[in-house]
Amino acid sequence: MIYQRFVPEGWNQENKKYSLDELKSAQSTNSVLQGKIESVDNNHNVHINLGNGIKGIIPNKELGQMLKENEYIQFKVNNINAESNICTLSRKAVKDESLSWAINELKSGDIVDGIVRNIKPYGAFVEIGGGSSGLLYINDISVARMKSPEERLYIGQKIKVKIKEIDKENKKFYLSYKDLLGSWEDNIKDFSEGSVVKGIVKECTKNQDGIFIELKPNLVGLCEYKDGLEYGKEVNVRIKRIIPDKKKIKLTLESC
Fold first, then answer.
1. Are 174 and 137 in contact (CB under 8 A)?
2. What do you get for the CA distance between the two ends of the chain, in Å?
């Protein structure tokens, strides 16, 4: 596990209250703080209750993206008006710095904490810190076929992800989840030839010579073809043969 300079917003759901001295110290040290959005006004400025009668405002131009009430947000202190007890904050400064960290300091193979922020048909966007998110393609979620990432993930889910690829030129990075679900050798330890287990139908081959059955999120086997079996159906299968050198499992249907 690498040192994670930035954690995802809300990873620790702490809505800390700050004193003026703490805010002044954070401003002088360029520190990252976290708060909870109290409201968003008509001009899309974010308002945060910093505690002790102090109000924080993140102008829309310092936001980086639209957020909603009650969401946790990270920020830096730009300006403090001690007379009015109003602080001007910047989330954009945190996001820019965290993106630079992700692009320039992380490397392929690093493992980081993440929170699923958005799900699309082709994959999920996972924040790994400071508001910066990477793309987790659907093929990198599981070795088994999926029709939707929502079969494995949900918005707000905390997961660990591996940095798969970093595109420094376009400031993008790509993630893998399936690489952390255990190797074929790790997962097969829970199974033995002759045992009957439950599985989920994942894919019927086009020439109808077999059906792929998911036994675990990162482990699939092949059984004989049978009409009427649909994607997602749970079935009982017997493990007929385990072939370690080919990383294959042959199954037979017990019941449907």
1. yes
2. 43
pLDDT for the residue numbered 210: 85
Q: Where are the domains of the chain?
A: 20-90, 102-180, 188-255
pLDDT in tens, 83-96: 899 999 999 999 99
DSSP strands (E only) in 168-233: 172-176, 196-204, 211-216, 219-223
- Domain 102-180 belongs to what topology? OB fold (Dihydrolipoamide Acetyltransferase, E2P) (2.40.50)
Q: Which residues contact 246 (CB under 8 A, 6 or more apart)?
A: none
CATH number of 188-255: 2.40.50.140
Alpha helices in 91-231 (DSSP H): 92-104, 184-188
Q: Over pLDDT 70: what percentage of the chain?
A: 96
Instruction: Tell me what pLDDT residue 2 has.
Output: 65
- The CATH superfamily label for domain 20-90 reads Nucleic acid-binding proteins (2.40.50.140)
Closest C-alpha among 248, 251, 247 to residue 229: 251
Kindly report, residue by residue over 5-14, the tens digit of the pLDDT. 899 999 998 8
- In the predicted structure, residue 255 carries a pLDDT above the cut 80: no
Determine the Cα–Cα distance for residues 240 and 186; give it in Å rounded to an integer.
19
In degrees, to the nearest 5, what angle opens at C-alpha 136 toward C-alphas 114 and 244? 100
Is residue 180 helix, strand or coil?
Answer: helix
Q: Would you say 200 and 223 are in contact if contact means Cβ atoms under 8 Å apart?
A: no
